[in-house]
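Researcher: Can you fold this with NAP in place?
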Amino acid sequence: MKALVYEKAHSLDNFAIKLIKVAEPILREHDVLVEVRAIGVNPGEAAIRSMRSAEPGGRVLLGWEFAGVVIGAGLAVQRFKIGDRVFGTGDMTRDGCWAERLAVDHRIIARIPDQISFCDAASLPIGAVTAWEAMFRDRDTLADGINRVLILGGAGAVGSLATQLLKAKTKAFVVSTGSRSDSKAWCSGMGADLVLDHAVDVVAQLAAADISYVDMVLSTAKSGGNIGWIAKVLRPFGHLSVVDVGPSPDVTPLILKSASLHTEMVFSRIIHGSAPHIQGGILETVAALVVEGRVRPIATTLLNGLMAGTMKAAHELVETGRTIGKVVIVI
Ligand SMILES: NC(=O)c1ccc[n+]([C@@H]2O[C@H](COP(=O)([O-])OP(=O)(O)OC[C@H]3O[C@@H](n4cnc5c(N)ncnc54)[C@H](OP(=O)(O)O)[C@@H]3O)[C@@H](O)[C@H]2O)c1
């Protein structure tokens, strides 16, 4: 099959991903074989491209957000049949979906209802599962006592799905942030009750809105450097949930508030074999919410074709750190 791969970690300026012929994916017993129809491209994947190299003689095949059609199944798979339309994430320790075909554990994917296009479906999985686990942890809603949530970076994929999931599944008051007029408008469109600007003093903006504290902060960017002021807006025993990876944060300001620090890695369940089927269930819920009109897919930029130039264009966009919604490549 054809796949977009590279050998050595590289910068965007030296973009080296190429479309070449590679061996077909090998199915494990819980896998389905999927013909890939659409790909969501993520800033985390661009970061991995700049850091991860192949073993000598090998190649790296990234991409863990897809929509497609089941064309084969491992021996332990009963949940799907050939021809089912499916969407999901993947396992960052295995080959990804920037290819014609993908082998993926069926427990972390879900069926796409007829009403949802491949493109829209591919815009959802990483943002939805990450936002869900970051806020709801291993439950299916917020913990008791979390009534007001501040989302830093409300127009990114995680922030967009976080806002929508909170409004669809909880009664929480949602404050989200953007720093430009179009990203702020997008935050409102996702359902935020109040939109602030993360480029200026958020504490002062909350105070001006008569909000003296929030119960949870979901931080999607520059989290380590912001902990000092984030701790100021959290109530004692509040929750900070962090999804971006950066320099190790100094958590002293959180300790002074007896606050909890939650981390999230969307691949942790599948890598550690810890009830991965729960993620398939999350995606089933998200698909149902989309059909009910309570969650909107977030594809904003559509690119066409499994081609190196298309993937480079996607990386150029996600590396700006200014993406609104999701960049999707339709195959
Ligand atoms: N842990 C996990 O499992 C996991 C999963 C998915 C993503 N991630 C990580 O989560 C982060 C968000 O990813 P994403 O795909 O949602 O979107 P993204 O492309 O990283 O987010 C773009 C958005 O970030 C906002 N932003 C830029 N600088 C900011 C700042 N200093 N404070 C707050 N917001 C800022 C921008 O808003 P403005 O343009 O308005 O400034 C833009 O709308 C990335 O670091 C990604 O790698 C982690």
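Model: Folded with NAP in place. Residues 42-44, 126-127, 130, 152-153, 155-159, 177-180, 183, 198, 220-222, 243-244, 264-266, 318, 321-324 surround NAP (CB under 6 Å).
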